[in-house]
Amino acid sequence: MLKIGDIEIKNQVVLAPMAGVCNSAFRLTVKEFGAGLVCAEMVSDKGIVLKNEKTMNMLYIDEREKPLSLQIFGGEKKTLVEAAQFVDKNTNADIIDINMGCPVPKITKCDAGAKWLLDPDKIYEMVAAVVEAVEKPVTVKMRMGWDDDHIFAVKNAQAVERAGGKAVALHGRTRVQMYEGKANWDIIREVKQSINIPLIGNGDVQTPHDAKRMLEETGCDGVMIGRAALGNPWMIYRTVQYLETGRLMVEPTVREKMDVCILHLDRLIALKDEYIAVREMRKHAAWYLKGVRGNARVRNAINECNTRDELVGVLNSLAVEVEEEERHVIVG
Ligand SMILES: Cc1cc2nc3c(=O)[nH]c(=O)nc-3n(C[C@H](O)[C@H](O)[C@H](O)COP(=O)(O)O)c2cc1C
Question: From CA 136, how far away is CA 139, in angstroms rounded?
């Protein structure tokens, strides 16, 4: 069983933290599809310390999502520790995760995110300070290095362990790669062999088979799934099932996809107001529609929706259309 500190996780499948995506509405939906652990989108330490209203809203966690890992990012020890203490005392997160992977210049410029990867000593110092200040288990999510000439994944993960971190999630790409190229799973195996805390492998797990292959090839303790779960919580369900039983469940029907998309929309409306939720949902709706026949036809219509009723109308009519077409094919 995957165990992080005292937190027992019922399977090896972890939803990756994704900014602008992994809020409570999506996380709860993915949790209901069987994820062992869900990770929240990254939250700024300074936003927490300054009690910025938008940031505070990002700390909301539904009890049904637990166990949950809440990720913070920052480049200064003082604010990072203060933010971690706030999360420790004032949220129902189970795990506090520190971001050492975000590649975007706005973040790395402030010595946060992937910038840490260049300095194992800083990693040790910062993680130790956070561990010392909180009761919840502290983990780190990192990329394998800054660029091809600076791949310190082993040293960095060992620094996390020495500092009292309870797990590492490793994305097998460098900061410079952003999302280009292929994730390097060899480095995941190398890091797994060099630490004693759980290692969660991440990068390019696109199918349930990939998840099994990553576990087998690297020996990692859990698999973290990001992009493949966008608009596709079935990826999580099918992966959990495949790992547990060796059976591959069928892909969802269009009607099922639209129903879950609408459930996700309604949860987002409950979280934010309708106007914001519908706008935010446009990108999710496009992800739910990936692979659905006729999706290009409705994409523009979705991007013009401003209310729940409009969006639900477009989604339902697409489902009806596709069902009709399928009936014709079967009858014909
Ligand atoms: C839209 C998006 C937002 C992301 N936001 C975060 C984030 O907030 N924190 C983080 O550690 N990683 C973030 N990531 C990286 C993912 O957690 C993951 O490491 C990456 O997508 C590789 O996994 P995948 O191949 O399964 O997608 C983000 C990725 C995407 C696509």
Answer: 10
Residue whose CB lies within 8 A of the most ligand 1 atoms, among 14, 15, 18, 230, for a mutation test: 18
3-state secondary structure of 193: helix
Give the amino acid at 174.
T
Going from the Cα of 16 to the center of ligand 1, the distance in angstroms, rounded, reads 6
N residues, the chain: 332
What torsion, rounded to 10 degrees, do the Cα atoms 264, 269, 272, 273 define? Answer: 160
286, 310 contact by CB (below 8 A):
no
CA angle, corner 228, sides to 225 and 229, nearest 5?
A: 75
- State yes or no: pLDDT of 331 exceeds 70: no
In degrees and rounded to multiples of 5, residue 157 shows phi and psi of -70, -40
pLDDT one-digit tens code per residue, 197-245: 999 999 999 999 999 999 999 999 999 999 999 999 999 999 999 999 9
Among candidate residues 156, 137, 161, 159, the one with its CA nearest the CA of residue 171: 156
The residue whose CA is least distant from atom 3 of ligand 1 is: 18
**Cis peptide bond N-terminal to 198, omega within 30:** no
pLDDT at residue 81 tops 80: yes
Q: d(Cα 328, Cα 321) in Å, to the nearest integer?
A: 11
**CB-hemisphere CA count at 13 Å for 60?**
15
